[in-house]
């Protein structure tokens, strides 16, 4: 075959594409178990961080087993535990697309060294450029926030991405989900300086309005499904 001809060039390019694709597919398949494990460890680290337990990739699994272990379950909209489902494997990205009545609501119970119990609720929503998510932990009154952490996929550095910082997360501590009458009020993210003295508001990020509003919407949309469980 003429190596200078178009046919040879086409066949050579096709073979190379197939070979490279096969190699990449093999590597992706081979690395998937490791990637899945790393993702699971990172998730456990985030869950623990929401109850102010610091962990590393090396000890996250041990600490998760110690403080939470099997004390995780899935609820329905009525606050009833659902059998045959594991809280840790619930794909919240899929669940938030369902109606409230159809969703699965995972929750984690954490018993700290002082004997107190915290309830950890995962949340997921939309920011400016992509998905945002987090974990909100509640005291054993099932109302007062003990801690909160948030993450994002592609928010703007210095603006919306600030939801991952203590500056934004720490003010959630001590806020409450229910008003004095017992009605669900959630936690609203408002403009800078407007949350002072309000148990249901935190200051948003200056210049990150859309992401801040996204966090507030995410909290209301995800937490309201736990209302009956938290009240009972």
UniProtKB/TrEMBL annotation:
Signal peptide positions on this chain: none
Family annotation (Pfam families): FMN_bind
EC number(s) stated in the UniProt entry for this protein: 7.2.1.1
Residues recorded as bearing FMN phosphoryl threonine in the entry: 209
Requisite cofactors: FMN
Presence of the UniProt keyword Lyase in the record: no
Location of this chain's protein in the cell: Cell membrane
TM helices/strands, residue ranges: 6-28
Membrane topology: Single-pass membrane protein
Domain FMN-binding: 127-226
Enzyme class (EC, first level): translocase
Reactions accelerated catalytically: a ubiquinone + n Na(+)(in) + NADH + H(+) = a ubiquinol + n Na(+)(out) + NAD(+)
Major location (coarse): membrane
Keyword entries, A-Z: Cell inner membrane, Cell membrane, Flavoprotein, FMN, Ion transport, Membrane, NAD, Phosphoprotein, Sodium, Sodium transport, Translocase, Transmembrane, Transmembrane helix, Transport, Ubiquinone
Superkingdom of the source species: Bacteria
Family: Belongs to the NqrC family.
Main function: NQR complex catalyzes the reduction of ubiquinone-1 to ubiquinol by two successive reactions, coupled with the transport of Na(+) ions from the cytoplasm to the periplasm. NqrA to NqrE are probably involved in the second step, the conversion of ubisemiquinone to ubiquinol.
Quaternary structure note: Composed of six subunits; NqrA, NqrB, NqrC, NqrD, NqrE and NqrF.
Official protein name in the record: Na(+)-translocating NADH-quinone reductase subunit C
Higher taxonomy: Bacteria, Pseudomonadati, Bacteroidota, Bacteroidia, Marinilabiliales
């Amino acid at each position: 075959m003429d190596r200078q001809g178009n046919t040879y060039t086409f066949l050579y390019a096709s073979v190379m594409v197939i070979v490279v694709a096969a190699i990449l597919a093999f590597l992706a398949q081979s690395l998937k178990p490791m990637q899945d494990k790393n993702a699971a460890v990172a998730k456990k680290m985030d869950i623990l961080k929401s109850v102010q337990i610091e962990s590393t990739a090396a000890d996250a699994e041990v600490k998760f087993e110690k403080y939470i272990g099997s004390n995780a379950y899935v609820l329905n909209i009525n606050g009833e535990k659902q059998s045959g489902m594991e809280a840790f494997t619930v794909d919240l990205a899929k669940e938030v697309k369902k109606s409230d009545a159809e969703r699965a609501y995972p929750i984690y119970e954490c018993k700290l060294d002082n004997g107190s119990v915290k309830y950890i609720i995962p949340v997921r929503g939309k920011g400016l450029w992509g998905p945002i998510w987090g974990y909100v932990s509640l005291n054993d009154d099932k109302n007062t926030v003990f801690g909160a952490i948030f993450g994002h996929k592609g928010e703007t550095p210095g603006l919306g991405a600030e939801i991952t910082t203590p500056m934004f997360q720490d003010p959630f501590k001590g806020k409450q989900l229910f008003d004095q009458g017992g009605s669900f009020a959630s936690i609203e993210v408002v403009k800078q300086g407007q949350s002072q003295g309000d148990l249901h508001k935190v200051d948003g990020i200056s210049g990150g309005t859309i992401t801040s509003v996204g966090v507030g919407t995410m909290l209301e949309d995800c937490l309201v499904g736990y209302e009956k469980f938290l009240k009972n």
